[in-house]
């Protein structure tokens, strides 16, 4: 009988302990409860889970938060990353004074705070955004937290989490990589918001600067990739006297997203894809390549990962230590060719296409105009450069630099940077010596002293912005001058000359001459009065150009004939490799001319295809076999032509195409309309009511044939020209490549004061074959 009573007593005591261990509320932990190893707390919506876990084959136990709805466990926060438990004795509880405590065998392993509070009813809660909070149950405002894990990130930033500094409390929200994929202890890399001067993101490797973003430009951090795709996320940057932070939010709660720093120090945006049960890399927020290391090229040096060597000096500067540069040590940077003379003796050189320099020694005013900004810089002899930082609405705000310009890289940016230069440097006349007129009989890259070959002496005013001129015989010309910030290297420059000098066709731009001397390189083309097809189709500012259907149809024909000449009818078999609207120029009569042969590849003999490890071109026009495998052929150009046809018909860009009813890109949208027998709806509103339906339908059909997934299914350009010139029955197209937007989109908002919304865009022009 005694044994029976004892058994019942032990059973009741065990039930009481169990009650105190597991809360009735699945997402909370009260002061009279404890969460032991093996128990978990689940957020109200089932998105996140808090509990104990081990990594890999290790027996160490950690208290952390992970995604519940992700099939492979992805940890987003760890309490005791540097103090793991070596057994399963761990227990989490919240004290009566509001402190979370991780205990093991009676010892405190980790706690949330050393500051205790009185007269509160604390409760810990795991929210559905992944934030573990301690709050006062008696408080009328349940959004006021005593403590929150969002203030102490590990290696992950979640949507809604602030990344930056609270200037009132001193909390510095930075995230630190794991030591390795199997070791969550503090790693080598730390990402943080540097608030000296104008804020920017730094990544440190130990005590050394590893990489840097540029300053926030109103849409994104300068030097970081951007996306021109449908808006599903909101980015925010707040910069005021109380706090400086960046955060992003997802517009659709069903999207599982994170910003993650891997053990190698790469910052990557990721979204979970249920269909593949894997994380999809949206973008690496700081480019990872040979130009990533901070200050690689030293003061006033610029880095271009596609050049060799990668470092060069900005215009008006030269290597400070040439002997070091000769052995690839560029850290000493560059020095001015001509010294500054403060006041009226200085001017400013405008450059674009670069990530803005380090802003730790800078000053910002949000209300100044660009003219006021220049005046402020001119009046301060310590000012080395200025810019209108906020690129929205045509540009505004004034950013001044007060030190050597450091960590500049060539990048696909449209912002202008104005660098202080001696006036004598800006106005000196540099004769580029021998500018050779091209003749069919010879082609050379240097002047050999001959007096018999015709030439012109071209005088260029350094810093001038003019891109056109007139020869002595009255011919208008366009000058393509490669600056040191150009992505096109000397090899591409020479390749362009070799290719186009031997090609003559009414639908190819005509090269009149070239010059190479020192670091100056120029190409002289026939003048194209109506600039590029890209501007005519997509630039709303080109109000003087309105392409009607006959012009568009003629442009399609002209591009097709030009490509046929390159692929088949010329003395060389040439694959352009960068056919896009921006490389189609329009003359006075709107005749199309294919231009920019810097990336072209010549085939010899019976060659029909080749493979490369360096994939070049423009996102939105590159064929799938080229982008994925580096395999290119004439069918690569056919794919680009098909994209062009659909863009010409629709007046919409394939890259960044948006439709409110689906996520397809332009190719997928055209394919959808074709299958639903609504093909005519693809036409631009400018031509829809005045075009010839049969021509329009035929053009779209041909465009879809050209963008088919498999290269062997696409027609040759000779077949395309035949199809355009007659009314024969066309074969049905198969599904196009890149059918759906694979880059998951985002919308961006910032606050330099009040928060505002804006759309973010990106162009990817260089890819690596996988």
UniProtKB/TrEMBL annotation:
Domain of life of the source: Eukaryota
GO molecular function: ATP binding; protein serine kinase activity; protein serine/threonine kinase activity
Any one annotated GO CC term: membrane
Occurrences of domain Apple (ranges): 342-422
Organism of origin: Cynara cardunculus var. scolymus (Globe artichoke)
Domain Bulb-type lectin per the UniProt entry, residue ranges: 26-147
Keyword Cytoplasm included in the entry's annotation: no
Name of this chain's protein: Receptor-like serine/threonine-protein kinase
UniProt KW Transmembrane keyword: yes
Family: Belongs to the protein kinase superfamily. Ser/Thr protein kinase family.
Pfam families per record: B_lectin, DUF3403, PAN_2, PK_Tyr_Ser-Thr, S_locus_glycop
């Amino acid at each position: 009988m005694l044994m029976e009573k004892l058994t019942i007593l032990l059973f009741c005591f065990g039930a009481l302990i169990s009650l105190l261990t597991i809360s009735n509320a699945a997402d909370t932990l009260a002061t009279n409860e404890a969460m032991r190893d093996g128990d978990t707390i689940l957020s109200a919506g089932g998105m996140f889970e808090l509990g104990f876990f081990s990594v890999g084959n290790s027996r160490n136990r950690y208290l952390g938060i992970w995604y519940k709805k992700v099939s492979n466990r992805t940890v987003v926060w760890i309490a005791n990353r540097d103090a793991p438990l070596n057994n399963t004795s761990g227990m989490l509880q919240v004290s009566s004074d509001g402190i979370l405590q991780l205990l093991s065998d009676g010892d405190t392993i980790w706690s949330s705070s050393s500051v205790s509070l009185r007269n509160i009813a604390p409760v810990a809660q795991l929210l559905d955004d992944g934030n573990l909070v301690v709050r006062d149950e008696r408080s009328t405002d349940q959004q006021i937290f005593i403590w929150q894990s969002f203030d102490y990130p590990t290696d992950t930033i979640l949507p809604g989490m602030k990344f930056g500094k609270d200037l009132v409390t001193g909390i510095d929200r930075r995230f630190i990589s794991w030591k390795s994929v199997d070791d969550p202890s503090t790693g080598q890399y730390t990402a943080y918001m540097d608030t000296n001067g104008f804020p920017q993101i730094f990544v440190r490797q130990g005590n050394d600067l590893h990489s840097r973003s540029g300053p926030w430009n109103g849409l994104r951090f300068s030097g970081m990739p951007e996306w021109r795709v449908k808006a599903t996320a909101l980015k925010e940057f707040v910069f005021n006297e109380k706090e400086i932070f960046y955060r992003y939010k997802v517009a659709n709660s069903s999207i599982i997203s994170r910003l993650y720093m891997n053990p190698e120090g790469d910052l990557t945006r990721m979204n979970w894809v249920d269909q593949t049960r894997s994380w999809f890399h949206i973008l690496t927020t700081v480019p990872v390549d040979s130009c990533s290391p901070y200050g690689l090229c030293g003061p006033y040096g610029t880095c271009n990962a596609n050049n060799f060597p990668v470092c060069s000096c900005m215009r008006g500067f030269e290597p400070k230590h040439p002997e070091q540069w000769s052995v690839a040590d560029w850290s000493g940077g560059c020095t001015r060719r001509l010294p500054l003379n403060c006041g009226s003796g200085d001017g400013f050189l405008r450059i674009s296409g670069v990530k803005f320099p380090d802003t730790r020694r800078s000053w910002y005013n949000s209300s100044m105009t660009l003219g006021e900004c220049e005046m402020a810089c001119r009046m301060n002899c310590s000012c080395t450069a200025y810019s209108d930082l906020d690129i929205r609405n045509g540009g505004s705000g004034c950013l001044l630099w007060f030190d050597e310009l450091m960590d500049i890289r060539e990048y696909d940016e449209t912002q202008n940077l104005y660098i202080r230069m001696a006036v004598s440097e800006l106005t000196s006349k540099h004769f580029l010596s021998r500018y050779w007129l091209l003749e069919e009989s010879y082609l050379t890259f240097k002047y050999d002293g001959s007096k018999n070959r015709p030439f012109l002496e071209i005088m260029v005013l350094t810093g001038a912005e003019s891109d056109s001129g007139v020869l002595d015989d009255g011919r208008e010309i366009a000058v393509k001058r490669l600056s040191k910030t150009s992505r096109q290297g000397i090899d591409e420059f020479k390749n362009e000359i070799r290719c186009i000098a031997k090609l003559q066709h009414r639908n190819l731009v005509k090269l009149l001459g070239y010059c190479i001397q020192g670091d100056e390189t120029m190409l002289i083309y026939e003048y194209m009065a109506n600039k590029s097809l890209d501007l005519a189709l997509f630039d709303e500012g080109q109000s003087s150009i309105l392409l009607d259907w006959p012009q568009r149809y003629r442009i399609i024909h002209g591009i097709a004939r030009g490509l046929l000449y390159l692929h088949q009818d010329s003395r060389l078999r040439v694959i352009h490799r960068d056919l896009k609207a921006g490389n189609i120029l329009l003359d006075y009569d709107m005749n199309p001319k294919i231009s920019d042969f810097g990336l072209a590849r010549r085939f010899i003999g019976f060659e029909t295809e080749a493979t490369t490890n360096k994939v070049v071109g423009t996102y939105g026009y590159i064929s799938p076999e080229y982008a994925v495998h580096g395999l290119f052929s004439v069918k690569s150009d056919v794919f680009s032509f098909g994209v062009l046809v659909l863009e010409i018909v629709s007046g919409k860009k394939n890259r960044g195409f948006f439709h409110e009813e689906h996520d397809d890109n332009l190719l997928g949208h055209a394919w959808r309309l074709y299958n639903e027998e609504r093909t005519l709806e693809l036409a631009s509103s400018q031509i829809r009511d005045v075009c010839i339906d049969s021509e329009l339908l035929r053009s779209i059909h041909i465009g879809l044939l050209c963008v088919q997934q498999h290269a062997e299914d696409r027609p040759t350009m000779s077949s395309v020209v035949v199809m355009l010139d007659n009314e024969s029955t066309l074969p049905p197209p198969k599904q196009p490549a890149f059918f759906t937007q694979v880059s998951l989109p985002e919308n961006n908002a910032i606050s330099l004061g009040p928060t505002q919304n804006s759309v973010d865009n990106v162009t990817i022009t260089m890819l690596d074959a996988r």
